[in-house]
Each structure stands twice: as structure tokens, then as C-alpha cells.
Hints:
Layout: H1 3-8, H2 24-35, E1 38-48, H3 53-67, E2 78-81, E3 86-92, H4 98-114, E4 121-129, E5 135-141, E6 146-150, H5 162-171
Antiparallel strand pairs: 1-3, 1-4, 2-3, 4-5, 5-6
InterPro entries: PspAB-like (IPR054383)
Amino acid sequence: MGLLDILLGRTKPVAPDLDQLFALPSAAVTLEAAAGFRATGRGAVCFATVEGGAFEQTHREVQALLDADAERTGPPVELTQDAYGYSWLVSRRTPDQLSALVNDLHAVNSAMEVNGFGPQLLCSLAGFEDDGGRRLALVYLYKRGSFFPFAPLAGDGQRRDSSLELQVKSMLGNDLRIEQDLSRWFPVWGAPGL
């Protein structure tokens, strides 16, 4: 960062730190103890849609890597597209395999990053649910290196439980690097991992 950047108030962007994903299992323990939310075993990586042979090769590499997991049952990764034009690589595990799910998310992000698709990465998320059926996602912002909670309300699908999100923010402040800029807590409506 140069003198001109300091004078103009520009800051250096936060570098992605995929190892932050490995804090999710300990955050899940706090989340269950404090609010009754348990992991669903579903998670996903979202990125700007990419087409072409290089991406297809990366997708095959990710599938081969995740296929090598002897504990996995079912398809390793499902590729879907949402209504907003973003692509999602979705991983499904049993609810008690959150650590394995985190490994999946890390592997997908790493493979995309190594193969030159880092700029297209948007976020990753892990799904949670309580006994009342309320859903929650802990969303990792790739370009910010931080997390935020997203809690959609049941019903019309376009409202969120902001109160719950702020409660989760205060609960997990010691477990995760929480995104402090609330304007970056964008909704992930229809996220397949949620």
C-alpha cells in the first residue's frame, strides 16, 4: 500500500483465506449450544457461471477428488444454476459429517482457485436447521475472507430473519471471522445448499 493510497483512504482488499472454512465445526458446536441449530449436512459453493473446456476439466477433477472419499454415499457434487444466473456446486453429507462437508467446500474452492477461477468465486455456505424448522446458513464470502449468517423466513421465500442473523453474529464472534459491514450480508435466495 503506497502513500497515495493512505492519503486517499484506500485500503488493501482482504485476501481470501480458505482455511477460515475449517472454523465451521467449532462454530457449529456454539450455534447448537446457544440457539439449537444443527448442521443439515448440505453445503455449496457459488460462483459466476463459467463455460468451456477448462471449467469442465476442473469440475471433473473436483468430482474425482470427492469420489475418492470412501465415506461418501450418493453423488459427490451436483452442479446447478439458480434463477440469478449463478452456478452452485452442491455437496450433501449426513448431518453428523460437518467436518467432511467443510473438506468438500474447501476442496471445491481450492480447485477452482488453482485452476484460475478464483475471481469467479462468490461464496460458500453450510446449512443449519433448528427443531422448529427454521433454516440458517453460515455464508463465507470468498473475496472478503469472512462469514455472515443468512436466515430466510419460511413462507414467501423473499424475507429474512434479521433479528436471528444479528443474534448469530454475536454468538459466533469468537468462533468465526464475521463480516462487520452489514451491507455485504447479501441474501442467497434459493441457495441449493440451504
